[in-house]
């Protein structure tokens, strides 16, 4: 892998990269940074957690003129949390150069945003709905934008943002530099690319499977009614540092978070019905470790990068292979290992096999964790906590009492009693969740032919050679034949996109940005996609 010095970047950008702790470039960065520096339009595809943000962020920040007082670059993201996170990474990269960047997303006070816009940021990172609001209010002008980046482009299409993106891009000069990034590139992305990109270079560092290489994948077959017990045993057995649990609907997420809290886990829910304040709080707590279980709808599936996530658990099977890939990709990031568990009801087994085929990765069947395994896991965890406390030496104030008690009681019994207390056990609390319908299997055929030369993506797994090709898909060699009419946008479904578009811009009342108030709705529709060949590349 190349070091960052080899790209000929500005010294201030190099300094930022070093401060961020990046030593060498990841495969997608190595491929795209030079092309982006030449001003080439790009479609960049690489596995989850392999540094796509910096792959576009570094050349962008390098190119921006800090003297510019108008918006010169626009990054669009599908969710608010992602816009915030990408903005933070851009801020870090641009810090020493003195670049001004600003996240713009729904749910945040628009007046505050307008005030921040007066500071003349050069880079705006936003969700399409709120961006349009500002454009309509004339608080954002795009006449001087030279670079546009669509992060998670396929998801934005899937969410029905095509019209908004079109409206926004119409206002950007056509002489511009445009780049699309995602870990998954269904064929319908071709349409978007044709429309918005000029002679793009396809850069793909996806090896034979699209999911990240460092994630161990397992599934447990069980009945809907067994899921919660299985979940709590699994958490006890595995003792994750941080875990994300995906549920299918907002109601599911609420019920699950509450049930986990009742059982004594530090868990909170994240979905689009929460206020932005609540969403921000939950994310902050999860990032700083004050909660260790995040229960979420697919609003958290894309792009979120929280270090220390060791486990992803699909409490409900995701609707499509893309969603699976992105959900499990919240772990196993930046060269770290992770484990992904998926709960599957007997009627969903076919759908699981479909996901395995499309992602070209076997998901290993595992038995339901036993009570004994759960107990053992919990005991180990308690012992670790005690040893951790010993090392930190924060227990001094208890020493006097300990000596007194040891004079009267046997040390083994004392410690065992303390451990029992510390472990806590609320297993007897009955938990009842509203059942979810199973995901239906797909009937249509799909094509998983694979060919072509591929290189390893991720950290240190690549051979360094590139595999640029037309088309994307799940590692298929793809000629980019998008024969289907299967455009996946707009999806008029009940997904949780957020109808509260503060500032009430025109276009549509469809819910956006995973932030609305229609309780009980699904964050992702269960309606199968129209055509399988929008999923895989032929
Ligand atoms: N060259 C590098 N060296 C070390 N760490 C890096 C490097 N580039 C990026 N990272 C870190 O890797 C993590 C994942 O990066 P990022 O979020 O950009 O992944 P991604 O490819 O966009 O994943 P996703 O598909 O899930 O959005 C981040 O914490 C980032 O800071
Ligand atoms: Mg990303």
UniProtKB/TrEMBL annotation:
Tagged with keyword Coiled coil: no
One Pfam family for this entry, by name? Helicase_C
* Gene Ontology molecular function: ATP binding; hydrolase activity; RNA helicase activity; RNA strand annealing activity
Under the heading InterPro entries, the entry gives:
DEAD/DEAH_box_helicase_dom, DEAD/DEAH_RhlB, DEAD_box_RNA_helicases, Helicase_ATP-bd, Helicase_C-like, P-loop_NTPase, RNA-helicase_DEAD-box_CS, RNA_helicase_DEAD_Q_motif
Which EC class does it fall in?
A: hydrolase
Q: For this protein, what is the EC number?
A: 3.6.4.13
What residue spans carry the Gly residues bias annotation? 454-463
Give the motif span (Q motif): 2-30
| Domain of life according to the entry | Bacteria
GO biological-process terms attached to the record: response to cold
**Record field: compositional bias (Polar residues):** 502-520
Q: Which UniProt keywords apply?
A: ATP-binding, Cytoplasm, Helicase, Hydrolase, Nucleotide-binding
Q: Record's PROSITE patterns? A: DEAD_ATP_HELICASE (PS00039), HELICASE_ATP_BIND_1 (PS51192), HELICASE_CTER (PS51194), Q_MOTIF (PS51195)
Which reactions fall under this protein's catalytic activity?
Answer: ATP + H2O = ADP + phosphate + H(+)
Q: Where is the Helicase ATP-binding domain?
A: 33-203
Gene Ontology, cellular component aspect: cytosol; ribosome
Where the record annotates domain Helicase C-terminal, the positions are 214-376
> Does ATP-binding show up as a keyword for this record?
yes
Region entry Disordered, spans: 442-538
Signal peptide region:
none
Family membership: Belongs to the DEAD box helicase family.
Name recorded for this polypeptide: ATP-dependent RNA helicase CshA
């Amino acid at each position: 892998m190349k070091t960052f010095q080899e790209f000929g970047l500005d010294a201030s950008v190099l300094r930022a990269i070093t401060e961020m702790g990046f030593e060498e470039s990841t495969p997608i960065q190595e491929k795209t940074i030079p092309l982006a520096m030449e001003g080439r339009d790009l479609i960049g595809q690489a596995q989850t957690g392999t540094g796509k943000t910096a792959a576009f962020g570094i050349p962008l920040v390098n190119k921006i003129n800090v003297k510019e007082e108008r918006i010169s670059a626009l990054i669009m993201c599908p969710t608010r949390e992602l816009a915030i996170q990408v903005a933070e990474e851009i801020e870090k990269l641009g810090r020493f150069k003195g670049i001004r960047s600003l996240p713009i997303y729904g749910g945040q006070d628009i007046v505050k945003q307008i005030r921040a816009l007066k500071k003349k940021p050069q880079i705006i990172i936003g969700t399409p709905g709120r961006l349009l609001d500002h454009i309509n209010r004339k608080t954002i002008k795009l006449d001087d934008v030279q670079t546009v980046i669509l992060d998670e482009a396929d998801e934005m299409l899937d969410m029905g943002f095509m019209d908004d993106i079109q409206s926004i891009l119409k206002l950007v000069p056509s002489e511009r530099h445009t780049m699309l990034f995602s870990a998954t590139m269904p064929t319908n992305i071709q349409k978007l690319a044709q429309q918005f990109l000029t002679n793009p270079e396809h850069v793909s560092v996806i090896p034979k499977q699209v999911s990240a290489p460092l994630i161990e994948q397992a599934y447990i077959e069980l009945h809907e009614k067994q899921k919660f017990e299985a979940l709590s045993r699994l958490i006890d057995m595995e003792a994750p540092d941080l875990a994300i649990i995906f549920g299918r609907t907002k109601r599911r997420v609420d019920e699950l978070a509450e049930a986990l809290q009742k059982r004594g886990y530090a868990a909170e829910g994240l979905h689009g019905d929460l206020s932005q304040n609540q969403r921000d709080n939950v994310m902050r707590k999860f990032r700083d470790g004050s909660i260790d279980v995040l229960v979420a709808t697919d609003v958290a599936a894309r792009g979120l990068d929280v270090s220390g996530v060791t486990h992803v658990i699909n409490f409900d099977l995701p609707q499509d292979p893309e969603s699976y890939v992105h959900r499990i990709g919240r772990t196993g990031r930046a060269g770290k290992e992770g484990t992904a568990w998926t709960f599957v009801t007997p009627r969903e087994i076919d759908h699981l096999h479909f996901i395995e085929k499309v992602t070209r990765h076997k998901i290993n069947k595992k038995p339901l964790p036993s009570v004994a395994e759960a107990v053992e896991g919990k005991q180990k965890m308690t012992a670790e906590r005690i040893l951790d406390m010993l090392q930190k030496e924060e227990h001094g104030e208890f020493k006097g009492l300990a000596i007194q008690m040891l004079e009267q009681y046997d040390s083994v019994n004392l410690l065992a009693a303390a451990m029992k207390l510390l472990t806590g056990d609320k297993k007897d609390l009955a938990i009842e969740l509203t059942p979810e319908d199973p995901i239906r299997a797909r009937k249509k055929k799909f094509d998983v032919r694979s060919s072509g030369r591929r290189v390893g993506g991720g950290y240190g797994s690549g051979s360094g050679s590139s595999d640029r090709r037309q088309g994307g898909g799940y590692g298929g060699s793809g000629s980019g034949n998008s024969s289907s009419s299967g455009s996946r946008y707009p999806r008029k479904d009940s997904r949780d996109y957020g109808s509260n578009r503060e500032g009430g811009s025109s276009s549509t009342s469809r819910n956006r940005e995973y932030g609305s108030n229609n309780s009980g709705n699904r964050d992702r529709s269960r309606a199968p996609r129209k055509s399988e060949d929008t999923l895989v590349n032929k």
